Amino acid sequence: METGSTQTAENAMPEPVWTGLPPGLLRMRRLLLVVWLGLLTIAVGLLLGLFAGPGWAAFALLPLALIVWGWPMLGRNWRSWRYAERADDLLISRGVLWREETVVPYGRMQLVEVTSGPVERHFGLASVQLHTAAAATDACIPGLDPAEAERLRDRLTELGEARSAGL
Q: Does pTM top 0.85 for this prediction?
C-alpha cells in the first residue's frame, strides 16, 4: 500500500512557485484613485454649490465614497495578481470575484515586450506583454520592477525560441 501512495506523490506535478506583484503598483493605483476622484469631488462640489445651491453640493460626497470603497478593492485586486514560471509554460493568475488563470506555453510565444508609460516610469514600473498566435492566450503582467521585467522578457524569449525550435 505504501508503495502506491509514494509512487502517486512522486508522479504528481510539483506546485508552481508563485511570484506576486511589487507594492509600487498598488501605490500607483491608489494615488491615481485619490487624485482623480479627489479632483472630481472638488469639481462636483464647486459646480453644484455655485449653480444648484449648497444642498446639491452634498453630491460631492459620492466620489469620496468611491475612494473609501476603492482603496481596499485595489488592495484585493493587487494581491490577486501572481505569476509562475514552470518548465513548459508561464502561469498568470488574477481576479478577486472571477478568478482567471492564463497558461502561456513557451513554444507558442511570438513576441514578448516590455512597456512602461509615463506614469509607470515615474513609479519605477514596467509591464511585460506576451503575444501568441492565438489572441485569446495573449497575456500581460503589470507593475513589475524594470529589471525584473527585462529579466522575464529575456528568459521567456529564450525559452520560447528553444521550445519553438523543436516544433
A: no
Laid out side by side, the sheet with 139-144 consists of 109-115, 126-132, 139-144
Average pLDDT rounded to a whole number, residues 147-164:
88
C-alpha 73/C-alpha 58 separation (Å) is: 24
Residue 124 backbone class (left: φ over 0; alpha: ψ -120 to 50; beta: rest): left
Q: How confident is the model at residue 147 (pLDDT cuts 50, 70, 90)?
A: very high
Within 13 Å and on the Cβ side, how many CA atoms surround 155?
A: 14
In whole angstroms, what is the distance from residue 143 CA to residue 52 CA? 42
Strands (E), 82-134: 82-85, 89-94, 100-105, 109-115, 126-132
Q: Report DSSP state, residue 124.
A: T
Is residue 48 within 8 A of residue 56, CB to CB? The reply is yes
Query: Cα–Cα distance between 26 and 82 in angstroms, integer?
Result: 13
Dihedral sign, Cα of residue 28, residue 155, residue 12, residue 91: positive
Amino acid at site 98: W
Segment 47-95, tens digit of pLDDT: 988 888 888 888 888 999 999 999 999 999 999 999 999 988 999 999 9
Query: Which cell goes with 80?
Result: 490577486
Q: Which residues pair with 90 in a beta bridge?
A: 85, 104
